[in-house]
Amino acid sequence: YCVTEANDFTPSRDKIMDFGGKLTGPTDFTPLDALKIAFQADGITKYAGDYCYSFHFSKLRKVVRLRAILDATNIKYTETLYKDGSYGFYVYVGFALTKDFSDITLEDKSEQWCLDFLSELEHWDGSKRDTDKAHKYSNTNYAAVEFVQAVAASCSIYTSVYADVKDGVNTSYSVYISK
Fold it and tell me: Counting Cβ atoms within 10 Å, is residue 18 exposed (0-12), middle (13-18) or buried (19+)?
């Protein structure tokens, strides 16, 4: 192996980065971090100026999980049960949430934070693969995909990304995360 500083690294087909290492920051994963993941996966910006976001679920497991996250954050929200059995949430955060995780920095995060992030991500936008040790995260937002890869690399977890290109449809990217 050849050690190269990150600022000097230029990726090519002949040069790749295996793993990033392990972060040692003091920050623990919080319910607010979990809310950011839930929003990225299933949230909709309702009123940008008021930082109001909405969620709509038919899966009860997501309803229960979002309710627990919101209760743990003490963020104001309303919940509605619709006639079709689905649930709607209006969440009043007070600050901007993003769809690409650009509001999260890894500088102060710990290895455990990264592991917790990946675990929470699996509940919202992930699916299990052949074993419990691997899962897939899919998104059309490449910046979010890159962030998930960076989180995995920051706790020495191997990932690979594949693009699913179809005519007339946004390219979907899948990150395969091997624990």
Answer: exposed
